[in-house]
Design goal:
Shape: globular
Structural class: mainly beta
Strand content: over 45%
Oligomer: single chain
Distance between the termini: 45 Å
Number of strands: 14
Mean pLDDT: 87
Number of domains: 1
Low-confidence stretches: 1-14
Helix content: 10-25%
Number of helices: 3
Length: about 190
């Protein structure tokens, strides 16, 4: 029994790390029509996508979140968020961790797509979330996004979930104080 436990420990110790891909996004400046948020800033958002071993779906390497403004309301909207399946799938959950200009968590967004995807197939969703309480501070301070496929339901009914430790390790360079609770989706305005 002790030998089996030791073998499992060795296998879990040598699992491959999550890969992360990064790209520059849009400027933090946001035109509201009558004025510009962050008008004097030269900051550009950074978008990171984590590819977690064992999850048979990946987010586009250029996926991210941008802040939008319309009819007096702020929203976060996904950008280039296509998903590619390596196995036949029935559903997928994608999460985005939003980090502010000070390296603190703003929110963790979740999007679930229930759709059949063949192995090698793609989905092209377009997700939108209301900024909680229409907070101008949250809308203008979002600087970094980290996206990953959190879980999938395969066509055979099995569910594969991202390894939390691997996701946390991949996020640490962008948010050193990240903890497991930060990966849990945050209800946003209008959601429970």
């Amino acid at each position: 029994m002790k030998a089996i436990a030791m073998a499992l420990l060795l296998v879990s110790t040598f699992t491959s790390a999550a890969e992360i891909r990064s790209r520059a996004g849009d400027e933090v400046k946001l035109s509201l029509g009558h004025l510009v948020l962050n008008e004097k800033s030269t900051l550009t958002r950074m978008h990171h996508v984590i590819e977690v071993p064992g999850i048979p779906a990946t987010l586009s390497e250029v996926a991210g979140i941008k802040t939008t403004y319309s009819s007096g309301n702020y929203s976060w909207e996904s950008v280039k968020d296509d998903i590619t399946a390596s196995d036949a799938l029935s559903a997928v959950e994608v999460r985005f961790l939003l980090i502010d200009v000070f390296g603190e968590r703003i929110a963790t967004l979740s999007a679930i797509e229930v759709a059949d995807m063949a192995a090698g197939g793609q989905l092209y969703p377009n997700w939108r979330w209301n900024v909680p309480f229409n907070s101008e501070n949250d809308a203008k301070s979002m600087l970094t996004t980290v996206g990953w496929v959190a879980q999938v339901r395969k066509s055979n009914g099995t569910v594969a979930k991202a390894n939390e430790a691997q996701v946390l390790q991949a996020i640490k360079p962008y948010m050193p104080g990240v903890k497991a609770a930060d990966l849990v989706p945050t209800p946003v305005d209008g959601e429970k």
